[in-house]
Amino acid sequence: MIYGDSMRRVPWWALLSSGLAPVVLIAGWVVAGLMAGSSYDPATKTISVLAADGAPGAWVMTGALVVLGLCHMATAWGLRPAALPGRLTLGGGGAAAVVVALFPAPSSGGSLQHGSLAAVGFVLLAVWPVLAYDPNGTAAWALRRGPCLAATAVMGVGALWFLFELQRHGALGVAERLVTFLQSVCPLLVVVSCLRHQRLRSPVGPRSRV
């Protein structure tokens, strides 16, 4: 096997980190929402409300956001076939999730600091696929131009919907959950695509020892 190819292989643990991200995120907002009780409306209230100071399940949602961010950072480290700008952006989005968790919104309402940090995370996790594009003609399907552009476009539209609902005070919770879910599951799809690509291209028989 050529050393250059081996250095670009996705390790098995990237599947674990990328697969854990959406599970932890959803479990966090479900459990924290149940702890908040009937006063919390998931359709109109954001995830940040669940992690706000004094919220009954704040520790649950905060922990989920920290784990989510660490998962994205680990996945970015292991996603070696992706272009470096995309990996750095994904890792930056993960770091932003951790920082957002460490600076929760106050119980009295919104916070410019918290909102700005969350916006940075949204942007980074929306644009990383297009920056991860691999021009190599033999790249995994998820790292080719079309899928990368489509992923960023879909998440970008979701973010615009979130901003629209924010202005009209409508289904803000629904829009945010959709966007964050898409952003959390996207790295998993890319990792699965890369692992499948590796398996299909792996040499078989005696040559596999070369």
UniProtKB/TrEMBL annotation:
Q: Which UniProt keywords apply?
A: Membrane, Transmembrane, Transmembrane helix
Name of the protein in its database record: DUF998 domain-containing protein
Does the record carry Transmembrane helix as a key word? Answer: yes
- Any coiled-coil ranges, and where? none
Q: Which residues cross the membrane?
A: 12-37, 57-79, 86-105, 117-134, 146-164, 170-192
Q: Which organism is it from?
A: Streptomyces thermospinosisporus
InterPro entries hit by this protein: DUF998 (IPR009339)
The keyword Cytoplasm appears for this protein: no
